[in-house]
Amino acid sequence: MKYLLDTGVLIHNLMARSKLNRRALELLADDSSELYISAASSWEIAIKAGTGKLILPERPSQFVIRAIQSMSLQSLDITHNHVAALESLPSFHRDPFDRILIAQAKTEELVLLTADRKLEKYQIEMVWCGM
């Protein structure tokens, strides 16, 4: 199965695994899972670390590179098709990072791994990863 990691799931997996449920930990550890990280997550991490909203053990760029390597993540760039898909999304909330992740999951037919209840309103396949 192919999964797109929500930024929070990515951060929790590396820094606070106790915030993830057993199913999430199993999917993240399963060698048959194809795990993707969006460029949007890298961008979100850099912005939040830069504003002090996210404290990391290393520079944001190093954190993301370590995540990609240690979790065997595949990179997902943001394309014009992903941006175009934003037009069809309902406006349940305005977080641009969440919205592009939803659009990417929908466009690429990926299952979103999330611990953000606000995303449950969107009509895409997702797995709840929170406690």
Low-confidence stretches: none
Mean pLDDT equals: 96
Helix content range = 40-55%
What integer value in Å does the Rg equal? 14 Å
Element order: H for helix, E for strand: EHHEHHEHHEE
Strand content: 5-15%
Major sheet, described briefly? 5 strands, parallel
User: What structural class do the secondary elements suggest?
Assistant: alpha/beta
Number of DSSP-assigned strands = 5
Quick synopsis:
Helices cover 47% and strands 15% of the residues. With 131 residues, it is α/β, with parallel strands linked by helices.
What do you see in this structure?
This protein is of the alpha/beta class and 131 residues long. It is 47% helix and 15% strand. The chain has six helices and five strands; from the N terminus they run βααβααβααββ. A five-stranded parallel beta sheet has the order 3-2-1-4-5, with helices on both faces. It starts with a strand and ends with a strand. 36% of the residues are buried. The model has no long low-confidence stretch (mean pLDDT 96).
Which features would summarize this protein structure in a list?
5-stranded parallel β-sheet, 15% strand, 131 residues, alpha/beta
